[in-house]
Amino acid sequence: MANRLDEILSHSLLAALARKETADIAAMERQANARTARGFRANLRRVAESGPAVIAECKKASPSKGVIRQQYDPASFARAFEAGGAAAISVLTDEEFFQGSLSHLEAVSAAVNIPVLRKDFIVDPFQVLEAKAAGADAILLIVAAHKNEDLVELAAEAHRWGLDILCETHDREEIERALALGFDTIGVNSRNLKTLTVDPQTLVEMVSYLPENVIRVAESGIAHAEDIERLMAAGYDAFLIGETLMRQPDPGATLALLLDRQYVSEV
Ligand SMILES: O=C(O)c1ccccc1NCC(=O)[C@H](O)[C@H](O)COP(=O)(O)O
C-alpha cells in the first residue's frame, strides 16, 4: 500500500506536469533571470552566529492536522515574522495537501527582505524554475523522495538558478546520502513523512551524524523556547517552525517571544 509520502509525491508530479503543459517557459525564464536570490544559507549562518536562526513557516493546512489557520494572509505573517526576528521564511506552495499556492510565495517574497524557501515536494526541474520565477531564494529537496541521480539533477537545476537548497532527511542513512552528495544545509525532520508521526527524539539522535561545517536544521514539532534551547545545545543551528506559530493569534509576536526564550503555551 502506498504511504503518505508516495501519495503526495505522485500528486505533486502530476500537478507539476499539468502546469508545465500550459506554462510560458520563456516568460518564466525571463522572470527567473530578473530576480537575484537572497542568500538563504548565508543568512542562516549569519543569524546562527549570535542565536537561533528560525525559519518561520507560513502553513495554512497539513495532511496530518487539516486546516491549521482559517484567516490566512501569508504576506502579513511573513512581515510579522521578519519583524519578530526570523532568519528566513518558509512558504508551503502545495495546493492539494497544504492549501498553499505559488501566489503565496510571490506575495511573501515581495513583502520581506529576508530569504524565502519554497517548501514543496519538488520532483521535476520545472518546479525549480517556478520557484525562482515566483521569488524563492531556496528550495527543499527531500532525500526520501528521490534516488541519488534525481537529487543530483534537481540540485544542479537549483544551482543553475542561483537557489540554495535545504536538503531534508529523517534517518542516518538519508543523512549519509545527503552528505555524500555534498549538501551543506541539511534538515532533520522529526516527522516521519511515511506515517506523519512526529518523534522529537529523532532530532536529538540524528544531530551527531551531521558535521559542523553543515548548517543543521531541526524541523517539525518545535513548540517551546525550551525545545530550541535543548536542540541548540545538541548542535542545531536553525529551526523550522510552522504549526506552533500559525496556531497563535499573533504569529509574529509569538516568534519574538520564542526568540526571547519565553515559554509559549500550547493552544
Ligand atoms: O505537516 C505535515 O503534516 C506534513 C505531512 C507530510 C509531509 C510534510 C508535512 N509537513 C511539512 C513540514 O515538514 C513542516 O511543515 C515543517 O517542518 C514545520 O513543521 P511544524 O512546525 O510541525 O508545523
UniProtKB/TrEMBL annotation:
Protein origin, superkingdom: Bacteria
Gene: trpC
Domain Indole-3-glycerol phosphate synthase, residue spans: 5-254
Biochemical pathway: Amino-acid biosynthesis; L-tryptophan biosynthesis; L-tryptophan from chorismate: step 4/5
Catalytic activity entry: 1-(2-carboxyphenylamino)-1-deoxy-D-ribulose 5-phosphate + H(+) = (1S,2R)-1-C-(indol-3-yl)glycerol 3-phosphate + CO2 + H2O
InterPro entries for the chain: Aldolase_TIM (IPR013785), Indole-3-glycerol_P_synth (IPR045186), Indole-3-glycerol_P_synth_dom (IPR013798), Indole-3-GlycerolPSynthase_CS (IPR001468), RibuloseP-bd_barrel (IPR011060)
Coiled coil: none
Family: Belongs to the TrpC family.
Name assigned to this protein: Indole-3-glycerol phosphate synthase
GO BP, sorted A to Z: L-tryptophan biosynthetic process
NCBIfam families in UniProt: PRK00278.2-4
A UniProt-annotated Pfam family: IGPS
Keywords: Amino-acid biosynthesis, Aromatic amino acid biosynthesis, Decarboxylase, Lyase, Tryptophan biosynthesis
GO MF assignments: indole-3-glycerol-phosphate synthase activity; phosphoribosylanthranilate isomerase activity
SUPFAM superfamilies found in the cross-reference section: Ribulose-phoshate binding barrel
Protein's organism: Granulicella sibirica
E.C. number(s) listed in UniProt: 4.1.1.48
